[in-house]
Amino acid sequence: MTEKKPARYASWTHGKLPLPELVEMKRRREKIVMVTAYDAPSGRLADAAGIDLILVGDSSGMVVHGRESTVPVSLEEIVFMTQWVTRGAKRPLVVADLPFGSYEVSDEQAVASAIRLVKEGGADAVKLERGGTSASRARAIVDAGIAAMGHVGLTPQTATVLGGFKAQGRSSMEARRLLEEARALEEAGCFAVVLEAVPAPVAARVTEVLAVPTIGIGAGAGCDGQVLVWHDMLGYYEGHAPRFVKRYADLGAVVVEALGRYADEVRAAEFPAEQHTYSIADEELALFEAAADASTLAG
Ligand code: KIV
Questions:
Q1: Pick from 100, 109, 98: which is nearest to 147 by CA?
Q2: For residue 83, how far is its CA from the centre of ligand 1 (angstroms)?
Q3: Which of 6, 189, 281, 284 has the largest count of CB atoms under 10 Å?
Q4: Does ligand 1 lie within 6 Å of residue 17's CB atom?
Q5: Is the overall model pTM greater than 0.85, yes or no?
Q6: Rounded mean pLDDT of 131-148?
Q7: Exposed, middle or buried by CB within 10 Å (0-12, 13-18, 19+), for 45?
């Protein structure tokens, strides 16, 4: 959708934002802006707002589809949503989440799932959660020619084993493990690493150590970029938003107010008005009414 440089882009290139530009942005200390999106209009609006990266996140399972967690989200769902988002977003790089169960079994499974997201979904890159075996999966994906983003700290797909949706890296041992995981993902070839729900000083140190950008969510201002979930930041979600979310709009209230007015106007027969209807030539209407009278009499 974007043709001219919108004032908001920190880094401008024509067409799709080139992947190597991200590390250059880190070098220039320009912040990278990422948001989730799940359909064509949100992809188009994110592009129009000058967003650099769009995440087709499995957070969709909760904020769009009303589930309790991201765990049940299927690869097919992410493939479909990525197709929709990439129809709307032209310049931002579109990163598609590998959902739980689509990459844990083996490197081969991870590569096959990543290929589907790129080939069928049109994703520019994929994201996978956790350190440990995920570093091996990330390496296999990168070796297959697909850009991969890591995600450590609070990893919602495995929140149960982390003790729930809570901050990670709050002891020196946990923080060291987090740093090691992030480094392993960088060494595996990830072009960036998401740090979720991590103390700000820990995230800032990880950001200094890594050559690739860190994208924070609940990880403080020291990260190279930030990501927020569309529904959380725009107030379009009834559920409980984490404390690290800042609300930039209250779309839920706007929608309820608009729907309420619509309902009132329909009930009061104020909608539709003349300008919302189609006309018919007088002679055609007369012919139609004569025919309708005849068929009513006959019937
Ligand atoms: O699925 C998602 O939206 C995410 C973000 C919270 C980073 O993984």
A1: 98
A2: 18
A3: 189
A4: no
A5: yes
A6: 97
A7: middle
